[in-house]
Amino acid sequence: MRLLTIGAFAAALTAATPAFANLNVFACEPEWAALATEIGGDKVSVYSATTGLQDPHQIQARPGLIARARNADISVCSGAELEIGWLPQILAQTSNQKIRPGAPGAFDAANFVKLVDVPTKFDRAEGDIHSQGNPHIQTSPANILAIAKPLADRFAQLDPGNAQFYQSRAADFSTRWQAAMAKWQAEAAPLKGMPIAVEHLSWTYLENWLGLRRVVALEPKPGVPPSAGYLAQVVDTLQKDPAKMVIRAAYEDDRPSKFISDRQHIPAVVLPFTIGGTDAAKNLFSLYDDTINRLLAAAKG
Ligand SMILES: [Zn+2]
Question: Model pTM?
Fold first, then answer.
């Protein structure tokens, strides 16, 4: 009797719910989950497939992810083949046509920015994983800005009843974001021209934005861990052209950085890379606050 009452109540509630379309968003990485929430507000339900402590190139296509992808109205991913090692496997195990490549519900952020590090010659057999260019576009807030409006357009296309809502939230976000970018750029002025070493080519967009000068990457090719012999070459390079710090993402193996840090007597700096990479990087705004704070702290030290 009690169950029946609850069932009847639930049915009445469902009938009374206004007929707004609620978009289920499957975000491949936390930065896109955050941007989807900024644009979609309470009209979207957002799931992030990965955390800031996972390597987004290498994710297990586990059942929980497949279940989420099955119910998604839109996927929001970096694209540029960042997710090629796992997203196609997930899609192959769902019958969800909405987020198939080419469908309106397949949103690849990389399509809306100019990619850098585009290889002139590419051979996956050599272990390189950035076939289309550098997919780590979230390391520059200018890219986030460029993606906000196209994402709002896509939400509006999929959920026309709330088009105005998405567009106005995107406009509001863009205003706040541009103000934050001006603040970050001013704060980061002392970093201009600073020589750095990096583990993976994760930071090219950040380097270009802030004018950091990358001396060397510790990986011989993106995705290929450095051998001891290769690290010895890196040390040679850094002895001729010293870097002020060696940078890695929170999810990366710390050993190559620590080795270079010890040999060169420079700080090994962990940057959040995305939301959740550090405790302080809680949303899109604090992601860049923390990134710049950490760079400034290391530059002083
Ligand atoms: Zn990469």
Answer: 0.91
